[in-house]
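re: ur msg from earlier - yeah i can do the adenosine-5'-triphosphate complex, just paste it... oh wait u already did. ok heres what im feeding in:
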Amino acid sequence: MHPYGGHSEQRDRGVTVTSTHQAGPPAAHAVDLTKVYGSGDTQVVALGGVSVEFTAGQFTAIMGPSGSGKSTLMHCMAALDTPSTGQVFIGDVELSSLNDKKLTRIRRDRLGFIFQAFNLVPTLTAQENITLPLDIAGTKVDQEWFATVVATVGLGDRLKHKPNELSGGQQQRVACARALVSQPDIIFADEPTGNLDSRSSAEILAFLRRSVREFGQTIVMVTHDPGAAAHADRVLFLADGQFVDEMIDPTAEKVLERMKSFDATTAGQVA
Ligand SMILES: Nc1ncnc2c1ncn2[C@@H]1O[C@H](COP(=O)(O)OP(=O)(O)OP(=O)(O)O)[C@@H](O)[C@H]1O
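and the outut:
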């Protein structure tokens, strides 16, 4: 039995997690992903055969102890890294079948990214940062959608400011708007509230939640924070490069309890 208790679909290696809320094709999915770093004595199995589906219009949080493979999984799913074996699909496109040019295009046109460190271009204004992916692609900015996104993240009076003239929370709102403006199939957010105070975190999480509810956006978010995970529709728990459990309609209390049971099991193994 795995550390989080029982689950409906136990396979040889970890749990296969499938979407539960809606029918319809997943926005992205992975089949038996492995990622191995190094070789011999220094070999690290970061992902040990992970299969997962991300349903369109759903907000998924990924949690797990440090080193459990969360970032590795996100990077493989988001075409920022290549798995050792297994397949990643964005819609029905399998990433390993694409050359560099097509990968760049899929990242630009169909994927959105929000990083812990904001990753804004310091010499550009907030507005220029938000439209940068579209400008690079040579795509005309849909002004109505741009106005909706900017209003949603509450940046109306800050558009002419450069990142160093904005607070951390405001910078992350710019990053959220940048991810959303191209209406990607899926947004990958790697600890988006990791550098923010609790008030700014709450604002960003409310915005992510709203973009799922009102715009049908699909979001996958790595977080260490049970309160952040509670904004998601479901939480997937990783341990040692395997999915070990899934929680639908999480609350911060339930997530915290689950994490405690994991810590207790780990401590038991060490003792
Ligand atoms: N480039 C690399 N070379 C070697 N090992 C790596 C590399 N990147 C990650 N790892 C290892 O792979 C495992 C998974 O790392 P990963 O960063 O995915 O974990 P994580 O769950 O995101 O951790 P954290 O919560 O601390 O960010 C860890 O043991 C890590 O040390």
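cool cool. The first strand starts at residue 26 and ends at 37. ping me if u need the other ligands too
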